[in-house]
Write a structure and sequence with these properties.
Helix content is 50%, strand content 16%. It has 564 residues and is α+β, with helices and mostly antiparallel strands. Among the domains are: 51-84 and 95-144 and 164-254, Beta-Lactamase (2-Layer Sandwich); 408-564, Heat Shock Protein 90, CATH 3.30.565.10. The strands form five sheets. Strands 6-5-10-9-8-7 form a six-stranded mixed beta sheet, with helices on both faces. It has a five-stranded mixed beta sheet with strand order 12-14-15-17-16. Strands 1-4 form a two-stranded antiparallel sheet. α2 runs antiparallel to α7, α8 runs antiparallel to α9 (371-407) and α12 runs antiparallel to α13 (524-534). The radius of gyration is 54 Å and the shape is rod-shaped.
């Protein structure tokens, strides 16, 4: 067990709550940033994987290849006049006769082929080459250029200086290169089983002439870039007159996806910066008042002048915490004050019988006191001893009660069921006083300690019984003020209590009884008020509003706490 506990404590050293609050907030921000970065990587992955531009490009390449193949098969396979070696010099006249010109077998005419490719595909993103049946390259779009676009210009000396990119552009370029490499990696992985090493173009021409079908290749060149290459034969009457080779790179091509990813990264970095700045501001607005509350708690502990202690007045959770600390501090001060007052009251109440005992002891030793007076002094001494015993017992109960109020758990109390038991408890009282309860029709629940609440009613009812005549009545009436509060009134038909003494009767050790006062210490009502106050209620002496109950009227106000 000790080892397990030791392990838990060792692990708890690294818990987030052991760090300062500002560090906790920053740690959470960094964690969110990490999650966002992982999400950004997966987003780039799905952006590349779900990109259909490569498929559209492949479709476009096939369509262009078919278009070139169709045109060349219809228009470029022709017979051309053969050159006669005899048509030179003095034999020139004999060559002017048309019927003596000879035509070749059908061939792929170079000029028509070159003009068509130059006019249609010189600016194409595809590299197109055409070979004839003799493996001679007739046209290559990579070697074509428009002479009208060539311009001559003089470079100034300042323009020859190397263009140094600023740091932001440099970082942008670095990220685009990273994205490009990532894109190439995914493409290579996609075509891993189809990629072949690059061969000479004549080999592809030979294969196309031999097999006479359209073929597709994924080629890795010397720079480890992947090209897609498509070859198609140019046929007429089942004879191949040439081969079209169309290729284009599918890796090392920076497209719109890279810039989309870069813009998302920029937004992500901006979001992270704003989040960290806002968190820093928020942490300061959170940490500063908490530190201030901590200082206030220290000042309260050190008992600094109350003028220097100013609590926060806010409407958020920190304001609530400030109010609760202020209430707790006020409660502690009140308990200290009550303890001091209680000590003074106890000292005063114990001094009275002790003084009486001392006086009696001094008189007994005198010879002038008669035997009859000595008996009276002995009787008074016995009463004082009983009084002191009663005081000590009640003081012990009172102090134990205050501790129990703070420590014991509360529970939900059904008020109607609770009050139903009271008449049974006091049915056999010596004065034969009848106890009646007028309950509320609604079901009402209170939150408190049931045993302590019973003690409240026992103290109040016993107080009413002691001051009421025999065979009189006591009434307990419950009324609901609103949805949150109820009142409970306890009426009796005794001699009543003066309104001027409405607060004195709740003071400790106070009693105005003329008879049997030594058996009552005056702590009952004080205890009852202590319990009701702990339940967030009030206990006070009220004026009776019922003519048939003209004695004392105690008013209890309690909050309703529904368990549901």
């Amino acid at each position: 067990m000790a080892q397990v506990t030791h392990g838990v404590n060792k692990f708890s050293k690294f818990a987030l709550y052991n760090l300062p609050l500002s560090i906790q907030i920053l740690s959470i921000n960094f964690f969110i940033t990490f999650i966002g970065f992982v999400f950004l990587i997966f987003f780039n992955y799905f952006l590349i994987v779900n990109d259909d531009k490569s498929e559209l490009k492949r479709t476009d390449a096939n369509q262009k290849l078919i278009s070139i193949q169709s045109f060349l098969e219809k228009n470029s396979i022709i017979r051309v006049p053969l050159f006669n070696d005899n048509c030179i010099g003095e034999n020139l006249d004999t060559c002017e006769k048309e019927d003596e010109f000879e035509l070749s077998d059908p061939v792929l005419e170079p000029k028509i082929t070159q003009e068509f490719i130059r006019n249609k595909y010189s600016d194409s993103e595809f590299n197109i080459k055409v070979y004839n049946e003799d493996w001679i390259r007739l046209v290559d779009t990579s070697d074509l250029y428009d002479s009208s676009t060539v311009q001559e210009t003089d470079l100034l000396e300042d323009e020859l200086v190397t263009n140094n990119l600023n740091i932001l552009e440099h970082l942008n370029q670095k990220y685009l290169n990273f994205f490009l490499n990532y894109n190439d990696y995914l493409i290579k992985r996609k075509f891993l089983g189809l990629i072949t090493k690059e061969k000479s173009e004549i080999s592809y021409v030979s294969e196309s002439i031999k097999e006479q079908v359209v073929k597709q290749y994924y080629i890795e060149d010397s720079s480890q870039n992947i090209l897609q290459q498509i070859t198609a034969p140019i046929k007429s009457n089942n004879k191949v007159y040439g081969v079209i080779i169309l290729n284009y790179p599918i890796t090392n091509q920076l497209n719109d996806l890279g810039y989309i990813s870069l813009n998302i990264l920029r937004f992500f970095i901006l979001f992270v910066i704003i989040m960290i700045l806002m968190s820093f501001i928020f942490s300061q607005s959170l940490v500063s008042p908490i530190k201030r509350l901590s200082k206030l708690a220290i000042l309260e502990r050190e008992r600094v002048s109350e003028n220097k202690i100013v609590y926060l007045n806010r409407k958020d959770e920190i304001g609530v915490l400030s109010k609760e600390i202020q209430k707790m501090s006020a409660g502690l001060k009140l308990q200290i004050q009550q303890l001091e007052k209680f000590s003074a009251d106890v000292s005063h109440e114990l001094k009275n019988p002790l003084t009486s005992l001392q006086s009696a002891m001094e008189l007994i030793d005198k010879e002038t006191i008669s035997r009859e007076n000595k008996q009276k002094l002995y009787k008074n001494m016995l009463n004082d001893i009983r009084r002191m015993n009663q005081l000590i017992s009640d003081i012990s109960k009172f102090t134990r009660l205050k501790a129990e109020i703070e420590l014991e758990n509360n529970q939900f109390i059904d008020l109607n069921l609770f009050l139903e038991k009271l008449p049974i408890m006091f049915s056999n009282n010596q004065k034969e006083i009848e106890l009646t309860v007028n309950q509320c029709e609604e079901n009402i629940e209170l939150l408190g300690n049931k045993n302590k609440l019973i003690q409240v009613f026992v103290n109040l009812i016993e107080n009413s019984i002691s001051l009421s005549p025999k065979q009189s009545k006591i009434l307990i009436e419950v009324k609901k003020i609103n949805k949150k509060m109820i009142t409970i009134k306890i009426y009796d038909q005794g001699m009543g209590i003066e309104q001027n003494d409405s607060e004195k009767v709740f003071d400790r050790f106070y009693t105005d009884r003329q008879e049997n006062y030594k058996n009552h210490t005056g702590l009952g009502l004080s205890i009852a008020r202590e319990i009701i106050t702990h339940m967030d209620g009030k206990l006070q002496l009220d004026k009776s509003d019922k003519s048939e109950y003209s004695g004392a009227c105690f008013l209890i106000i309690l909050p309703i706490r529904q368990s549901s």
